[in-house]
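Appendix B. Chain record.
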Amino acid sequence: MKKLLGLVPIAFVWLASTLGCSGNAPLDGRPPDRVAAAVDLGRLPPGTLVDFVIGLSPRRPTELHKYVAMRRSGDAMLAPDDFADLYAAKRQDYARVMSWMEQHGIIVTRANAGRTTVSGLGSAGAVESLFGVELHQYSDAGGTFFAASGPITVANELVGVVNGVVGLSGSGNWQSHLAWPDLSAGAVITPDAMHTLYNTMTYANPGMGETVAILGAGLAPDPTADVGTFMSHYKPYGVASAASYSQTFLGGPNRDDVTSAQNEQIENILDAEMVLSMAPLANVVHVLTATNAPGLFTDGISYIVNQLPKAHTVSVSYGGCERGASQEMPVLDTLMEQAQAEGQQWFFASGDSGTDGCRDGSGNKHITAGWPTSSPFVVGVGGTMVGNGGVEIVWNQNTTGVGAGGGAPSEVFPKPAYQMGKTPADNARDTPDVAALAGGGGANIGYQGRIVGPVYGTSVAAPIFAGAWALVDQGKGGGGITDALTKLYAVAGTNAFNDVITGDNGGPDDASAGYLAGPGYDLATGLGTPNVVNLISNLP
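Structure tokens predicted for this chain:
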């Protein structure tokens, strides 16, 4: 393992006197998408602290794509510093980016061994100086936000090196895909029911040797009163302890408002307990950022990819809309492909509003995929519920105001090779990829020393599938599985999945206008829900 940061200060001595001398150039030549339809409320106060993440372009993208596609189970995996030497930005270019930031009074809060991102924190005034643009406050149908008022610029010497910036585009905070629970009623989806439904009941030592990371924000679960209560009550596979669960905090104490932080706490509790329901002997590391704002949340993604490479499975129940996220897409896609090269697969909840997961600045509905579910490098997880006869159908409880599983074609990404001939001929990246339980009776959680519920949402489904994937990785030898999406689509239509063929995922304002489930892939539940034993047997 090479010591990346030990070389950086030496490089700074020379770079500080030369970088930026020839001015700046636009990064992509256009202002953030969301700004165009918003009301400008004026300049952001110059002392406001801003978290952001700068992404760097991969150095050999074609070779990287080939590596990810050709690696097989059992092959040696890349460590983050090995990834950097083979595919990431050159060491001197990475140093130039950090030097440029520090010259403008920005604190480099995280440099990573993979050389794919640099995280920063600075006053609004310093950030404006760095990127040569004013930061303004805006308002639209989605709420109040801040963003760059024009195209972001970077030092001329860094054109082609920097591929995007997260935190300045007004894309909005990452929202929990959780339908707010009734914490007084009962529920029917227990861990034992999940094990039966997803064919894991005979699994020995479930999750042993695996590490699963969870990314969240806001208030943390109490390991004893919340997670410990759940484990001691349900005893999944006979495991009654939460000893394998730990927490890591990024960005200091919680910065979100009380209501948001409490909502996020329920989400965080749910995520941890659903992963442990499926893989109770896995080492579960919960990474919690101080806020769900895009800059710091992306820093959390970078932390997991670079600091937790042994986490072969990652679950995220937060997301947003493709619209307004164009500046952050290259940054996150590079991180997600780095994760795949390390044998780390990310699972994202697809959303709880059916096809109504994205609206423009005026509040008009657009049928489109959620973000980052639509990234071609992540697995999007839709929602099901148990219907008559114990058979799963599409999660859609809009008549009761609860929600429906997200799914739709992307407006941004073309159809990836692994979906060719397997999904509709729409020339688009289709979502979701797979599904798991999200509604029906809901899921109970351990909360403040008692069992409460039900809780609904694809934020139930994503950690369930992630826990199941930990079992799959364990069953395939525990070495990590790269290019999971290609492998999942390779077994489309087989008994590796429980095919969901009934229901639709219409949005809450139009319950009749969703995508219908049917045999094979559909835009409501993807390939279906997992059959763990058969996935282990069939997966290439």
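Further analysis of this model is presented in Appendix C.
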